[in-house]
Amino acid sequence: MTTPQSANTAPTARTKAAAPRAIAWPVPIGVAARRAGISARMVRHYESLGLISGVARTDSGYRQYTEADVHALHFIRRSRDLGFSMEEIAELLGLWHDRSRASSQVKRIAQQHIDDLSERIAQMQAMQRSLQTLVSCCKGNDRPDCPILDDLASGQAEQHAPRALRKTLPNQ
User: Fold this and answer.
1) Looking at CB atoms within 10 Å, which of 58, 76, 93, 131 has the fewest?
2) For residues 43 and 122, what is the distance between their CA atoms, to the nearest angstrom?
3) Over 50: is that where the pLDDT of 163 sits?
4) Where are the chain's structural domains?
5) Residue 16 pLDDT > 90, yes or no?
6) CA–CA separation, 152 vs 18, rounded Å?
């Protein structure tokens, strides 16, 4: 029979949460990448694009990243997560570093990105509708005729689909 641990008993080493280790800056690329949530390859790529610059190197040539570099890598990753292009990220990074910037500049970039996303979403919805129409026209049986393949082979957009298929397409 086991007895419950008394309130006065100190937790064992196994039950203690490991205290986070302090980071000794600067750090090598692997540590910087891990802390930013990206791969070392992406860190090198961002550096080659000039998004991260002035990275120090050891006498052996290894890159050494500062806390500010890792913060910038987080910024880049979050920007990529939101779908910003590398050009937009470069511009946003410049504005982020410029304390005298006007927030209207940042808003303009973000609004343009929203407009671009809306356009891409509309295009994808149109593609989805086209595919749904093609799928609904396909009998999906053992016969070889298939309006989906016919449409793809025609190399034409939906409005120029074969006559048999055009009859079933909704008016646009």
Assistant:
1) 58
2) 33
3) no
4) 21-84
5) no
6) 58
pLDDT for 21 equals 75
Whether residue 32 is predicted with pLDDT greater than 70 in this model: the reply is yes
Q: Please provide the size of the chain in residues.
A: 172
Structure tokens that stand for 47 in this block? 């550096």
The 3-state secondary structure of the chain reads: CCCCCCCCCCCCCCCCCCCCCCCCCCEEHHHHHHHHCCCHHHHHHHHHCCCCCCCEECCCCCEEECHHHHHHHHHHHHHHHCCCCHHHHHHHHHHHHCCCCCHHHHHHHHHHHHHHHHHHHHHHHHHHHHHHHHHHHCCCCCCCCCHHHHHHHHCCCHHHCCHHHHCCCCCC
Spatial separation of the C-alpha atoms in residues 138 and 172, rounded to whole Å: 21
Mean local confidence (pLDDT), 113-137: 97
What are the tens digits of pLDDT across the range 108-118? 999 999 999 99
Alpha-carbon distances of 3 from 6, 13, 127, 152, rounded to whole Å: 9, 19, 66, 72
Tokens of 22: 């302090």
Global confidence as pTM:
0.72
